[in-house]
Amino acid sequence: MTDHSSGPRRAPGELLRRLRLRHATDPVTHVERVPARAGEPVGWPGWAPEELRAAFARRGVTAPWRHQAEAAELAYAGSHVVVATGTASGKSLAYQLPALSTLLADPRATVLYLAPTKALAADQLRAVAGLELDGVRPATYDGDTPRAEREWIRRHSRFVLTNPDMLHHGILPGHAHWSGFLRRLAYVVVDECHTYRGVFGSHVAHVLRRLRRQCARFGRTPVFLLASATSGDPATAAGRLTGLPVTAVTEDTSPRGGVTFALWEPPLLPPTDSSVDADLVQVRRSALRETADLLADSVVEGVRTLAFVRSRRGAEVVAANARRSLDEAVPGLGERVAAYRAGYLREERRELERALLHGDLLGLASTNALELGVDLVGLDAVLICGWPGTRASLWQQAGRAGRSGDEALAVLVARDDPLDTYLVHHPEALFGRPVEATVLDPANPYVLAPQLACAAHESPLTPADLDLFGEGAKEAVDSLVEAGALRQRPTGWYWRHRERPEVDLRGEGGAPVCVVEESTGRLLGTVDGGSAHFLLHTGAVYLHQGVSYVVDSLDLADGCALVHAEEPDWSTHARDVTSLSVVSVRSYVDAGPVGLFLGEVDVTSQVVSYQRRRIATGEVIDTRPLDLPARELRTVAVWFTLSPGSLIAAGVEAADVPGALHAAEHAAIGLLPLMATCDRWDIGGLSTALHPDTEAPTVFVYDGHPGGAGFAERAYGTAVAWLRATRDAIVECGCETGCPSCVQSPKCGNGNNPLAKPEAVKVLDVVLANLAKVGGADPGGPGEDRGPAVGLEAGGPGAEAARGEALPRQGDRLTRPAQATGSPPA
Ligand SMILES: [Zn+2]
Ligand SMILES: [Zn+2]
């Protein structure tokens, strides 16, 4: 790698010391020296052919690490395996070793490799092709593969690299053309399998079952070899994804470089300096401002620094603020800082990366590590503005820093958010053993029915197939028959139409909305459909490359927002209202005065207005109504109820009950990502002192996706650990009456009113005490005595980046009476 550095290099400890010195009170809550680790090499397995060992040796691999050999042995012996270890721990070798050994030993065998992105598949193709093994003929097969080459690949390639979308749209519907390949399929490699989470993951789970079904028609049962980022319980997640029993290999024995990792909590503001925004009281300096200052300070030191910011808007703000303060210090220095995010066009992004690598830029603010080119590594420092959602994202971002042999600096700057606050005060949750699990729900009827339609189109469904597709399959098939999509015959269920069913694995966010400058017709970027209501409503202020635009109109039907350049001195904040009714109860825990439930609910939410706030002071200028359609959602929720008597006994006055529940709801939503790889915007909540369906004080937390995505289910399954972390986060926040770091929510539909912080703790204590009496509700979840921790995961293409700060599906207190359609537990 070329050394592009300009300016002096500083040891990470020294740079950190200088950054800390700029504050009156030390913002650093913890410094973790992640030490360099020597690797544990072992011998090659006896079955690995000499030709393959020689090929790996040419690449510089003289022996596998122990975890690679363990996974390879298991797979070679026919077990389905998931390797769940850290970034850059050599997971590729763990599947290449058994897969390529088999291809060399059996000249007919084939391997199918699945990556979540085309870029990763291309990367892996280079690696496998580079081994120059005779007769393997690796090839990528995706939407970009020229028609002319497709037939050659189907007939001759024995190592086909593709993605789940291509498997779903191309290979499985065309299985007749692939029969030669499928009847010889030995291994299915599922790389970065933690990215298959939520609704997308649930779809992929069924695509894999469809693949298994087509192989089974030829009597073939391929071995599944999965690679995952570190996470809680990877064997269960991989088992859900494939529908097979999977053994996990989780101990990382590869070597790594050292990182100095600092956890940074922005200081409390002096009271007079607080924002005057009545409903969202800022008590800490914002993470964006803090990150902008750290970025500027690092640039002044000549340190090439990458700042990761979760939201589109945030990256722009960080870059703009850093530029401004640098220009004040040294006119012209601000030009060496830029912003970068997913919505930019590809050429813009590659140009910015080149500039940072060559030192023309010293600071870059970006939204997501996955969007960055693979070459952008070896930076001196990485700033992470706000918890990036998962440990995998955290380490992927931190991993951009450090050249081989050099120590690197990484700083996690806490946002005003209950989870961030919890994490900077519980470093064991970041650096200890992960419990955060990759969650998906293949039983989601909104996923299962269309997937069964696809399967039936590929070949008629038989009663035996219903077992393969699992829980809910019979009901889904019945509903498809009723809807006229399938016809039942003595031999099975047949697809009735000529055309294939149209099912998009990633379509649930809605089509992206284009942002177009009206006067020039220029396309500025895109915003995903779900976020458009919040970010691109008429009157919204929208930032692009530091330039501010105001939205003139949003046309949801055309998927287009027209904007003009304008820099008003206010920002805009959309508000929504939500109502909820209980449809059915799936499972519940009767804990005396406390009830804990998992069930189906109907949620109606609508973006109804937006506030304009002065940028400088946060002062609310006005609230303006919006006329956007309501969005209806049937989904899965977890909820708890308390008897009014238990609240009185705990010292919660009747007048404080709504505020206590509301505060607990906000914090609980904020902490759920600790237990499951979800984004806080993947979930919503609603609390009320009396819900017509439960007839009790109730807090609901629901999946923000039709049919549920497994998040509420995970919350139910880990309720004790989840609610205990929620309680701790509230108790440990230094504020008096509640702030965005504990019980306030940035997207509260009720303006963060009412909120009762001390009473929220009492509510959670009542819930926890009563759940403890009945043994909790943690089937298979982490024990409550174990410190909760967070797993490693990477967000996935389009998952984190597309969501950004936007899908605020979080509703709030009941704003309309709900329909009492619930069926109470028997
Ligand atoms: Zn607080
Ligand atoms: Zn709220």
UniProtKB/TrEMBL annotation:
Pfam families recorded: DEAD, Helicase_C, MZB, WHD_HRQ1
Region of interest called Disordered, as start-end residue ranges on this chain: 774-826
Keyword Hydrolase: yes
Domain Helicase C-terminal as annotated: residue spans: 295-446
Molecular function in Gene Ontology: helicase activity
Key words of the record: ATP-binding, Helicase, Hydrolase, Nucleotide-binding
Gene3D superfamilies: P-loop containing nucleotide triphosphate hydrolases
Biased composition (Low complexity): 799-809
Keyword Hydrolase: yes
SUPFAM superfamilies according to UniProt: P-loop containing nucleoside triphosphate hydrolases (SSF52540)
Record-annotated Helicase ATP-binding domain positions: 72-249
Protein name, entry field: DEAD/DEAH box helicase domain-containing protein
Organism: Micromonospora echinospora
